[in-house]
Design brief:
The protein is α/β, with parallel strands linked by helices. It has 11 helices and 14 strands. Helix 3 crosses helix 4, helix 5 runs parallel beside helix 6 and helix 8 crosses helix 11. It binds adenosine-5'-triphosphate and magnesium ion.
Length: 305
Amino acid sequence: MPAVQMAGVTKTYRGKGGTPHKALDGLDMTVDTGGVHGLLGPNGSGKTTSIRALLGLVRIDAGEMQLLDRPVPAGLTGVIGDVGALVETPLFFPGFSGRRNLRLLAETAGVPRDRVEECLELVDLRERADDRFTGYSLGMKQRLGIAAALLKAPRLLILDEPSNGLDPAGIRDVRELIRRLGSDGRTTVLVSSHLLAEIQQVCDSVTILARGRRVASGPVASVLSRAGTGDVRVGVPDPAAAAAVLGAAGFTVSPAPDGQVLVHGAPAPGEITRVLAEHGHYVEELVRVTPDLESAFLAITGGQA
Ligand SMILES: Nc1ncnc2c1ncn2[C@@H]1O[C@H](COP(=O)(O)OP(=O)(O)OP(=O)(O)O)[C@@H](O)[C@H]1O
Ligand SMILES: [Mg+2]
């Protein structure tokens, strides 16, 4: 059973007197149960709109959606107890401590107090739990928001750009937390981001959005390899001469940033080694270059973004 399904979801915003704007344009998305799934797209591609639609916060024009096998929005009441979400910075009482804020939320949701302590522990806020919310750093506020989303021990946790606005330490903490939650075997995490590196670090699988449509999806590694150039970096004592030999043998070569030789077009490493050895060049290093998501994104979307 997929944790999330969206099929042909369309949402048009009609501004006052302005031209209608298609935020979601036939979006399909499937999030399998378990692990961390990324929703990756540039600003304005529809990440927040699709998350808000899934949570019943935005009414869609057309399409079908399911959360944990229940239809959305019709079946939301039956499933929302199993879903935790952090979409906007949640509202906390600034003068209350983190613990008191969570206890209030827990009471409202009928969650036992022990769970508040577990959640504070999960997000590493235990030591500062009695400080007033106003005194928290942005990262701590965000982690308290995640703790609030975790109170009900949700099977599905949805986080909209949770590391936005945080400093490097805050970003690292939030990413580690997401990885930890995604590997506990019972929680599925759906996390949106406009940062390719973040998805690469944190997610097992990914849906890539551009202009309200899915442009690629699958395991992070295979989405990467699909867009991958398949370059191989060859380290030799005389890169210029080796490049000439490889070029003459029909390989497409260019200089690597470090001065060594890049061979393009997914060549067979054994062939490279053989051709070079026949000409007296002995390979000292041979590395398949994995493209980063930055270039993968450009390759996949073909500039659509
Ligand atoms: N309430 C709204 N009224 C009108 N247009 C909206 C509204 N919310 C979103 N949009 C438009 O819909 C499109 C998608 O917006 P959305 O916020 O879903 O993108 P996003 O991928 O979350 O972007 P970001 O990375 O900036 O958060 C944008 O063009 C945006 O301007
Ligand atoms: Mg957004």
